[in-house]
Amino acid sequence: MGKVRLDGEGAGEVAGVAFRTDDEAQTLSIASTSGHVALFDLSNQMRLLHLVRNAHEGPVGGLEWVPGQPLMVTSAGDNSLKVRSFSLPASPCARS
Fold first, then answer.
1. Furthest CA-CA distance within the chain
2. pLDDT tens per residue across span 49-66
């Protein structure tokens, strides 16, 4: 596997990574200093599944998947904690 880079205008730097652990999908989540969260399919050559733009108003400080659940939790300096559900394996889009 190669290096992970966030490209594009305003992509920011990698601030955190987390792996989905519910055995439904092999997903790597990457949080950025610009407030975005990107989800990649590890079983398909790191294909981008979904990009949550402006997940927070500023850098994402924390990124975790709830063990055994399709729930991703993020936190940031904007004093917020957000939970996103990825309960449908065929649909990588988040529901807040």
1. 35
2. 989 988 888 899 999 999
